[in-house]
Amino acid sequence: MTRTKATHVRTVYFGLRHIYRQIAEWWHSQSAVLSLPAADAQRAFNAPIPMWRKQTGPEHYDLCVAGDYSNLADVLAAAKLIQTHPHKKVALFHWPAFGHAERKLCALYFELVGRPNVEPIVSGQPLEAVDYYLTNNSLVHYPLDAYPLWNKSESWQLLENRPNSV
User: Fold this and answer.
1) DSSP label of 97
2) How far apart are CA 38 and CA 115, in angstroms?
3) Which terminus of the chain is less hemmed in, N or C, by CB atoms within 10 Å?
4) Do the domain assignments include residue 92?
5) HSE-up (13 A, CA, CB side) for residue 31
6) Which of 129, 64, 136, 72 is nearest to 93 (CA)?
7) Per-residue pLDDT of the chain (166 residues; tens, 9 = 90+)
8) Do residues 133 and 66 lie in contact, with contact meaning Cβ atoms separated by under 8 Å?
9) Would residue 21 count as lying in a domain?
10) 165 in a domain, yes or no?
11) How many angstroms separate the CA atoms of 77 and 92, rounded?
12) If DSSP codes are grouped into helix, strand and coil, which group holds residue 126?
């Protein structure tokens, strides 16, 4: 498992393993009945796609929202966008603020990815989206080691004009 790029041991701190581990931890703390249906059926919690099935091409989304989901302001900005587009398929990419990669993701993030139209995405995951959003423009000042494989023609929109908080 650690010899492939998507599941390399460094993804424990950022990437597939980081997101999966935190989603699973949150789900275990919230679920009264811990039963797992077959992976090909409805998932008990919305794990990143590369964790449970091989992708033959990019997943298609209406909206892709990148933000530091350990920051409540970023999660609230994403939640507001999702609320105004309830029937859109949404991808959420956790882009940790520089120096804050160790912070736990907000509970609201887990509630969002628990919705049937919202999915967590991770670096190395191929996707295409109609619209791309960034919750906080300060994130672009510190590039990440890896990103999802999004289509190259994207133009990003900033969700809100608010103070950059980390």
Assistant:
1) P
2) 18
3) N
4) yes
5) 14
6) 64
7) 445 555 555 555 557 777 777 887 787 777 666 555 554 555 556 777 766 667 677 889 999 999 999 999 999 999 999 999 999 999 999 999 888 777 889 999 989 998 999 999 988 889 999 999 999 988 888 888 888 888 766 688 998 655 444 4
8) yes
9) yes
10) no
11) 12
12) strand
Q: Distance between CA atoms of 160 and 155, rounded to whole angstroms?
A: 16
Only one residue has tokens 């809100």, namely 160
**pTM exceeds 0.85, yes or no:** no
Quote the number of domains for the chain.
Answer: 1
Give the range of the structural domain holding residue 88, as residue numbers without chain letter. 9-32+45-158
Q: How far from chain centre, in Å, is Cα 150?
A: 13
Q: Is residue 124 a part of any domain in this protein?
A: yes
Alpha-carbon distance values, 166 to 37, 95, 138 (Å):
37, 11, 9
